[in-house]
Amino acid sequence: MIAQPPPATKRWITKPIPDADEHRESITSLTASLGVSPFLAALLVQRGISSYDEARSFFRPEITALHDPFLMRDMDRAIDRLTQAMRPERPEKILIYGDYDVDGTTSVALVYGFLQKYHEQIDYYIPDRYKEGYGISTQGVTWAAENGFTLIIALDCGIKSIDRVAEAAALGVDFIICDHHRPGAELPAAAAVLDPKRDDCNYPYNELSGCGVGFKLLHAYCLRNNIPLEQLYPCLDLVAVSIASDIVPVTGENRLMAYFGLKVLNSAPRTGLKALIKIAGFKSELDLTNVVFGLGPRINAAGRIKHAKAAVQLLLANADEEADEFAMAINKHNSDRRQFDSSMTEQALDMIRCDETLTNAKSTVLFDATWHKGVIGIVASRCIEHFHRPTIILTRSNDKAAGSARSVPGFDVYEAIEQCADLLEQFGGHTFAAGMTMPEANIDAFRQRFEEVVSRTIRDEDLTPLVDIDLPLDFSEIDAKLCRILKQMGPFGPHNMQPVFMTEDVYLASEPVIMKEKHLKIQVWQHRTGHTHTAVGFGMGHLAKQLRGRIPFSICYHLEQNHYNGSTTTQLMLKDIKLSQ
Predict the structure, then answer these.
(1) What's the whole-model pTM score?
(2) Burial 141-150 (b: 16+ CB within 10 A, else e)
(3) Most buried one in 68, 165, 167, 318, CB count within 10 A?
(4) Which residues pair with residue 535 across a beta bridge?
């Protein structure tokens, strides 16, 4: 067996510090108007906030700041077709069709759950991950036509389903497509195609989740039909779950919807999400990280292990007892998923370690016909934790090779896959995640082509894990007020990450403590200011021996308040440690 290389040293990249001359006026103004330190003012300027009004909008978002949904291309056509289908005198059967992941199932629960209050002839459909695959299927279109549906609203899928939409049209079934994936050169001939990533769409924000696009459809429906928006806003709990789980940027309208969606989740979540929160063991206020690691995987597990319809049933449940039963079943699926995930990850890592070519490659493409299709995306992410490079995990599905791709920051895996399109039957996705199917006979050629594309286009620095640092921070600046204001900068997620700080030349104030045999807890002393703080590094226990003695080192971290036995203290949550040379 080839020995696994030691983990690569992480790159510390400090964002540009606001220039004293260029930004002095903004920093001075924010310091005075907000009553914050110049350090915090500089942090805000660094994030593009340079005036009191911008700061107020950032810290105190208003739901009325949602964009006009009719700015989205085809929204008028979508609402016209939907209104036609919902006419009391000639009602049509409407099918809400969504993907089987978190974004898709929350989308279906959102749109079906809202529209069923105004239209009785409505149902929903989730494709089977294993029998039908991703997106709109011929089986789904046929089922809709055979059961008398004349309008399908496709959520989180459909932007590339040109053939399926044509099949539906031939059967007398129209489509309204609500998607957020990148379109191809040709759009489906649907009644309306809502996708803010369309080249001809001038909607002010193009990073919505699929559920977010569905929400904008309902937003427009409410405006057209004089339905108070206060009836729609409680649905933002589902949008917040989709934003967190689909890893879309938490900026602009996404941040606004996540902000208010979390308020719903923490004050009056729908019955199904309340049951899921309980079974996940959350007792304190939820943030997007809790959703990503606690709620998202459980919702996803329904479609990974059995059928995603169970996730929609949970999200639509009205009775506590019913919701608890669905939550327990989904939690069991999640436990099964973890077992598959663990064993498949070990197999995948062994395949890389035992093959010198794979070990030294700049990409990873692995295939095993026995791997569970529902977990391959998770395994791809796990492999990146060990070998930091674009990764595709493939398994057999319906006599084809089906794969999930994950990327590393700075590299567009979708574009790389697009350059292998002639070897694929279908593909779709985002910059950092994608899916594909191909004949098994094409796997070796695809692996070679993908490696060639990655090797030619990826930068060497993209193959090293990155820590983005916002600003250097003196220990004397750390206090409860700083932590309180930093928390208000959330919700945190891509493009609005929790601030990470760096402090150089610190020392151990006492012997390091190893927690649960792998985590590090240290008292860190900054000589220049004389201040000491507690720092915790998960998975960093192996560094304890290197830190012993009077040697200076540098740390990067984010700040977190620890509540224990009725007292609150500030902890430094370590991202990395570098010993001084």
Answers:
(1) 0.88
(2) beebbeeebb
(3) 165
(4) 522, 572
